[in-house]
Design goal:
With about 500 residues, this protein is α/β, with parallel strands linked by helices. It has 23 helices and 12 strands.
Length: about 500
C-alpha cells in the first residue's frame, strides 16, 4: 500500500470514557518528572507573554465584560441566532447540516467525504472534531484524516492524545518529537530528513516538507471555526502557523464542524474577540493568520462549502442557568496556563479533549456525571480562583465547580459510601455535648503521646486516606473548654 493510502495509526491509549478517575490518573502523571518540567516551563512562558500583551490594553476589563455580555446574549437567544446563521450561510452558497450528537455529525462528514470519492482529508486544528472523535470515524470508513497543525501532527504520529487546548503536545520534549518524526513520518508520507536534529527550526521544516505534499493533493479539507457570525454567515479561524490557511484555501471542498455555541450576533462583535482571544491564548496582539470566509467564491478557494452545526450535549448545558456560563468559552486555554493542578497533573489526567479548569466544568456537563472520570472532574481543583481572573469572557469556573460538586453529591445521595458513613458518625457525635466532650478528651490525651511531633505521619485506616496524602497537624494538648476552665475558673 502506498504512503498516500496509509492512514494514521489509531491511538493506543484507552478511550476517554474508559479512563480511571482523575485522582488515579493524576497520581500517575505526578510521577512523570519530565512532563512536569515541560508543563512548568511552557505554562510559565505563556503566562508571561499573556501578561505583557494584556497589560498594554487600558480597557481590558471592559473588553472582558463586553465579551461576556455578547456570549450571554447569544446563549439567551441561541435558537434565533442559529436560524439567522443558517439563512445567511445558505444565501452565501454554503450547505448547512444539523447534528444532534457526535454519531450524527460523524455520519454526515463521512458521507460528504465519500461523496467526493477520496480516501484522505487534511484537517485544521479543531477541538470540535476531537470532541466527536471524527478522525476515528473517518479511519473506520477507510479515510485518512491528516492533522496539519504541528502539535496535532506530533500527537497523531506519536499515537498520543492531546494534553492542552492550545499546545496539544505540550507534554513532549524536543528529543521525543525528533524520535517520533524519525520513526513514524515515513509510514504516513514523506520521511523526516536523515540529518534532522531536535532544533525547533529543523523539526518545523521536517513537518513542513511532510505536509506540503498532502496540502497539494488534498481534495477535501475539514476545519472547525472559532466564530460564526450570524448576521453575515461568515466563519472565522485563527491560527499561528499557516497550515490552517492551506487547508481552508487549497482543497476543492471544505467541511467545517462548528459547535452551536460558537455564534456571534454581528460582524461588529468580532472586533472584541479578535482582541480577547489572541492575547489570552498565544500571548500575541493578533494571530499571524486570521482566515475569514463567507461561502464559496468563484475561482478562489474551495468551490463547495459545508457547515455541520453540532449540539452534542450543548443544549443540556444551556438548560442549567448556572452551568451555561461554560458555553461562553472561546477555547483560549488561559485557565490551563494558570492552574496549579493542571501544571502538575497534565492534560491526560482529565480524560477529555478539554483538560484543565474549563474541562473540569464543561466535560461533565456535556457528557453527564454518570461515569467515574466525569464525576471526579469537579474535584480536580483547589478553587484558588486564578482561572476566573484570566478568563477573557469571565467564566466563573470556581462557582461552576462547586455547583457541579453539588450535583455529584445529589446524584449519589442515599447510596452507601465511606463518606456518608463518616458524616453520619459525625452527626451522631455532634448531637450530644457529652459525646463531643468525651471525644475531645480522647484526642487531647492521645496528643500527649506525640510529644515533639508537629504532624501525624501515618494513621491507621481510614485515617491513612488523609495522612498518606496530606500533612495532618498533631491535635492540641487541651481543648477550648479545658483552656477556658483553666484560665477563667469556670466550665463551658
Amino acid at each position: 500500500m502506498s504512503a498516500r493510502h496509509t492512514g494514521p495509526v489509531a491511538a493506543t491509549t484507552p478511550t476517554f470514557i474508559g479512563m480511571p478517575k482523575f485522582p488515579a490518573l493524576a497520581r500517575e502523571a505526578l510521577g512523570n518528572t519530565q512532563q512536569r518540567r515541560n508543563l512548568a516551563f511552557a505554562t510559565q512562558t505563556i503566562r508571561g507573554k499573556r501578561a505583557a500583551v494584556v497589560g498594554e490594553v487600558g480597557d481590558w476589563e471592559a473588553l472582558r465584560l463586553n465579551g461576556a455580555a455578547v456570549k450571554d446574549e447569544v446563549l439567551a437567544h441561541l435558537d434565533d441566532y442559529l436560524i439567522q446563521l443558517e439563512d445567511k450561510l445558505t444565501a452565501a452558497g454554503t450547505t448547512v447540516h444539523w447534528a444532534r450528537d457526535a454519531a450524527e455529525a460523524n455520519r454526515i462528514v463521512v458521507e460528504l467525504v465519500r461523496g467526493k470519492g477520496v480516501d484522505e482529508v487534511v484537517k485544521v486544528k479543531s477541538m470540535a472534531t476531537q470532541e466527536i472523535e471524527l478522525n476515528e470515524a473517518l479511519e473506520e470508513a477507510g479515510i485518512a484524516a491528516w492533522e496539519t497543525d504541528l502539535a496535532e501532527l506530533i500527537v497523531q504520529l506519536g499515537n498520543d492524545r492531546p494534553s492542552h487546548i492550545l499546545v496539544p503536545a505540550i507534554h513532549r520534549g524536543r528529543a521525543e518529537i525528533r524520535d517520533i518524526f524519525r520513526t513514524r513520518m515515513a509510514a504516513a508520507g514523506r520521511p523526516a530528513p536523515e540529518t534532522m536534529t531536535d532544533e525547533p527550526a529543523q523539526l518545523a521544516e521536517a513537518a513542513r516538507l511532510h505536509l506540503r505534499e498532502k496540502f497539494l493533493r488534498a481534495k477535501v479539507g475539514i476545519s472547525g471555526a472559532n466564530f460564526a457570525i450570524a448576521d453575515t454567515g461568515t466563519l472565522v479561524v485563527l491560527e499561528s502557523e499557516g497550515n490552517g490557511r492551506m487547508c481552508l484555501t487549497l482543497p476543492e471542498t471544505l467541511i467545517s464542524v462548528v459547535g452551536i455555541e460558537k455564534v456571534l450576533p454581528t460582524w461588529e462583535d468580532l472586533g472584541t474577540f479578535l482582541q480577547l482571544l489572541p492575547r489570552s491564548s498565544t500571548g500575541e496582539r493578533m494571530n499571524p493568520y486570521t482566515s475569514i470566509w463567507t461561502g464559496p467564491a468563484d475561482g478562489d478557494g474551495p468551490q463547495e462549502t459545508h457547515v455541520v452545526l453540532v449540539d452534542n450535549g450543548r443544549t443540556h448545558v444551556l438548560a442549567d442557568p448556572v452551568g451555561r456560563q461554560a458555553l461562553r468559552c472561546i477555547r483560549c486555554s488561559a485557565c490551563l496556563n494558570v492552574c496549579p493542578v493542571y501544571e502538575r497533573a497534565g492534560g491526560h489526567a482529565y480524560g477529555s479533549v478539554y483538560p484543565g479548569p474549563i474541562g473540569a466544568v464543561l466535560t461533565p456537563q456535556l457528557r453527564g456525571i454518570d461515569n467515574p472520570i466525569d464525576a471526579s472532574l469537579p474535584y480536580a481543583s483547589s478553587l484558588c480562583g486564578a482561572c476566573f481572573e484570566v478568563c477573557p469572557v469571565r467564566i466563573d469556573i470556581p462557582r461552576l465547580l462547586v455547583n457541579l460538586r453539588t450535583q455529584v453529591v445529589d446524584a449519589h445521595r442515599g447510596r452507601p459510601s465511606a463518606e456518608g458513613l463518616a458524616m453520619k458518625s459525625a452527626a451522631w457525635m455532634f448531637a450530644e455535648p457529652g459525646r463531643w466532650a468525651s471525644m475531645q478528651k480522647g484526642i487531647t490525651a492521645s496528643s500527649k503521646l506525640l510529644r515533639g511531633k508537629r504532624t501525624l505521619q501515618h494513621l491507621p485506616w481510614p485515617g491513612s486516606v488523609w495522612t498518606d496524602a496530606r500533612n495532618a497537624p498533631v491535635p492540641p494538648r487541651e481543648t477550648f473548654r479545658q483552656w477556658w476552665q483553666r484560665t477563667h475558673g469556670e466550665s463551658r
